[in-house]
Amino acid sequence: MKKLLISLVSVMFIFSLAACSETADPVDSKVKPQKKDSLTLKEVFEKTTDASKNLKSVHIDMDLKQEMTAPSQPTPMNINSNMSIDMVLNPLAMYQKMKMNVEGGDDATQNQAMDMESYLTKEGFFLYDPASKQWMQMPEELSKQILQMPEQQANPAEQLKQLQQFTDDFSFKQDDNQYILNLKASGEKFDQFLKENAKQMMPDGLKENADALNNITFKNVNYEIFIDKKTFNVNSLNMTQEMEMAMEGQKINLKQEMKGTYSNYNKVNEIKVPKEVKDTAKKIN
Fold first, then answer.
1. Kindly report the CA angle at 238 between 233 and 239, in degrees rounded to 5?
2. What are the DSSP E strand ranges found in the chain?
3. Cβ–Cβ under 8 Å, residues 180 and 24
4. What is the DSSP string of 115-134?
5. What is the 3-state secondary structure (H, E, C) of 204-260?
6. Residue 186 and residue 222: Cα distance in Å, rounded?
7. pLDDT tens-digit readout, 121-175
8. Strand pairing partners for 89?
């Protein structure tokens, strides 16, 4: 089951983001309602895409709840993760802190708690191992592969752009401050879209393993996207999904609920690996 947990974390990392002629319907607001905005969904997509062209950095707070069931497990395995991420683009660099709690599953995974911290820059991929209380420098090839990931994948608006082909399936609403887009997706076309999207996110060095995605079936996925009316930046992106994975000779069902908020647009400073981390890190070959 440890292999399943490692594979699940890998999936988390890889998947780690209405009709066009209709305007947004208003929703209840605590603030006195203003005049209904006349922008169409297509126009909101276009303005959000234009705003994303100026993105240089962003801060992301993410909560992720997962429930995994498998025939070999006596009870479902529940994983709760909280992540705080600073990200800079061009060149891509990232600093992340994550708390992960694991409950249920088998004896090897029950009641695990991990506080993890990592840096990813052109200097390498550095990961703090809470078990050994030791910084580790991951293999150079791994950091190069991750840094090869398209920078667009780190941009929430680019993730929204990829969903534009499903505009007819969106509901489109607004309150006084935000446009609210909802997409409830299921069926083969969304399954294929999510798999293709995952392949695009993969670094070139890992695409030889892309066939593993054929062992995953996306049953359904729901998106809820909040876009700021003034800046057209994505304020938050919520997603729930259910998938089935064939792994180690058994079928594993995974339910995920993700809530992500985006802030500090273009205000994140340059990310540098502290000297102490570089000096004390144990190199992993």
1. 130
2. 25-26, 57-69, 77-88, 93-104, 112-121, 124-129, 134-137, 170-174, 178-186, 216-228, 234-247, 250-263, 282-283
3. yes
4. EEEEEEETTEEEEEETTTTE
5. HHHHHHHHHHHHEEEEEEEEEEEEECCCCCEEEEEEEEEEEEEECCEEEEEEEEEEE
6. 9
7. 999 999 998 888 999 998 887 777 776 665 545 566 666 667 777 777 888 899 9
8. none
